[in-house]
Amino acid sequence: MQLDHLAIAVADLDAALTFYRDALGLELEGIEAVEQEGVRVAFLPLGDGESRIELVQPTREDTGIVKWMAKHGPGMHHVCLSVPNLESALARLAAHGCELINPQPVTREDGTRYAFIHPRSTFGVLVELYEKPE
Q1: Are 86 and 133 in contact (CB under 8 A)?
Q2: 65-68: Cβ within 8 A, 24+ apart
Q3: Which of 62, 74, 83, 103 is the most buried (most CB within 10 A)?
Q4: Residues 89, 42: contact at Cβ < 8 Å?
């Protein structure tokens, strides 16, 4: 298991890039529209490129991140950990009584599978698990 990314919720992706890319000097790996989640995401690799900062801007009003930002404002949204076997990780968490937002993995267009663990089970931190395609 390793850190895949730290996600930061932003209202304006371009404005956030002026800090993370321009002022901090992080390289922009790319920007992706994730239609099923209603967000635009910018990826900025850290160090050896295994971990990234993920800037997340909502593109629709009916998304979970809009609700989250209404309550918390922009800022740190979640921590994402990469796991080799998502079903196994979810089964282990369920066996330990953890509340899963996604009891079944969700699959992105690129084949990456993910699931979120509710902050009530993680001491206040929204945690995402990622399983990348081979």
Answers
A1: no
A2: 65/9, 65/37, 65/38, 65/39, 66/38, 68/9
A3: 83
A4: no
Q: Is there a contact between 7 and 56 (Cβ–Cβ < 8 Å)?
A: yes
Q: What's residue 4's pLDDT? A: 95
**Contact 86/131 with Cβ under 8 angstroms?**
yes
C-alpha dihedral sign at 112, 61, 126, 14: positive
The pLDDT value recorded for residue 134 is 81
pTM of the model: 0.91
Q: What is the mean pLDDT of the chain?
A: 95
CA distance 55 to 78: 11
